[in-house]
Amino acid sequence: MAHQTSDPKSNPISNSKADNGSFWFDSLDEPPAIAPSQALPSEVDVAIVGAGYTGLWTAYYLIEKDPSLNIAVFEANTVGFGASGRNGGWCMGLAWGIDAMLESESKRDAGVRLLRAMQDTVDEVGRISQREGIECHFTKGGTLEVAITPFHVHAMQEHITHLHALGFSEDDYRWLPPEEAKHRIGMSPNHGASYTPHCAVIHPARLVKGLGRVVRAKGVKIYEGTPVTEIAPGYVETDRGRVSARKIIRATEGYTDSIKGQERQMLPLYSMMVATEPLPDHVWDEIGLAERETFGDSRRITIYGQKTDDGRLAFGGRAGYYFGSKRRGVIPPDDPMVARVEENLRSLFPVLQDYQVTHGWGGLMGVPRHWRPSVAFDPVTGIGHAGGYTGEGVAASNLAGRILSDLVLERQSELTDLAWVNDVPGRWEPEPLRWLGVKAIQYFGDKADRIEMETGKPSKFWGKLFGTALG
């Protein structure tokens, strides 16, 4: 069983337009398919553009709070075809931008409220999945961030101390010394790890497909294979005709600039993933993850991994950006960016050298100009949006959907006071500035990470350039 490189033939790209190429879609109980066309309504109360997590969670909470609403969800492909159906499967109690708020004296209280809301959201996703019979393999094993150089240890311990000073406890965040960290996750290098229980693993495609089934059963109409080409006060324009709507929600993430007038709102940044064959118990004894913890490390260019319900190691990493915000619907398993992710996985876990990677895939996510999520609704125009999770949207989209449901229904709540509300980003720069900026961030981050791994010392020059470019 000595297969040290992946076999593209083991992960064929289906001819079906509904197949996003991921292990998650490949392992569904039924092959993904675009639902047969149905006549479009002439008018609805709420039109939601995008049948991913954000759109479906928003529909779920809206119909729960007001069952009389006539809600329609419009999806260009099939439910969960985008990031919701191909991501790393982390339902995590954190989101981009929160750590920066906790470091700011003026924003600290708002950051603490948002962080606690995100932690509660992990449990909310678990509760709803159980209540609605969504078999998404939800397991709350927490997450590990591994220190890959000795000098990362102090910074990570200081961060935990800072969180404790803000009112969080050892039950929320704690430091694992090297011996305990290596027992929890046998990756190399490993100089200790921070641990929080506020994270669960899921099967992302099962979650999004389950949400689609549930909201349909509650009376929400989902129109698959129906791209929206324009959004304006009072209507959405699709490639099959116009639909009048009193209120409209855009939940399109990295596909946002496919809609007229929405160009440069979101930058489509790519992430790539691989999944191994199911691994035997003795291999898992070396790797760890006995509680199905998720894991990452302290490098700048993000990696992420989990143990799947059927005993595979699913692993991913950020990959890059295409000039002009080009959107690739499916990434083939033999793509060079996928190969780099596999190489990284094998370097972290040498025990995998005799085991096959059976799946490789990738896709885009939405990144806003200010690099943090936002939720907004304008009662005058009747148009709102949510997104910008920058690759951390499984739990964040649930919180965003709950916020949006209150905003659409014009209900004040503790959620509508959270910092994401009306924190609307500006547009990204035009090309070639956008491409140059993103490439600079990636280059500086890669350079700093490599130098630190080679020398064991902080890369002050490249690290500073990375931080400055990232903003």
Structure commentary:
With 471 residues, this protein is α/β, with parallel strands linked by helices. Among the domains are: 34-139 and 203-263 and 370-428, FAD/NAD(P)-binding domain, CATH 3.50.50; 430-471. Helices cover 32% and strands 21% of the residues. It has helices at 23-26, 53-65, 98-103, 108-131, 150-165, 178-184, 204-217, 281-287, 336-348, 394-408, 433-455, 460-470, and strands at 43-49, 71-74, 90-92, 143-146, 174-176, 193-196, 199-201, 221-223, 228-232, 235-238, 241-250, 267-276, 294-297, 303-307, 313-320, 357-367, 374-378, 383-387. The strands form 4 sheets. Strands 1, 2, 8, 9, 10, 11, 17 and 18 form an 8-stranded mixed sheet that branches. The chain has a 4-stranded mixed sheet with strand order 5-6-4-13.
Question: How is the topology of this model organized?
Answer:
Blueprint: H1 23-26, E1 43-49, H2 53-65, E2 71-74, E3 90-92, H3 98-103, H4 108-131, E4 143-146, H5 150-165, E5 174-176, H6 178-184, E6 193-196, E7 199-201, H7 204-217, E8 221-223, E9 228-232, E10 235-238, E11 241-250, E12 267-276, H8 281-287, E13 294-297, E14 303-307, E15 313-320, H9 336-348, E16 357-367, E17 374-378, E18 383-387, H10 394-408, H11 433-455, H12 460-470
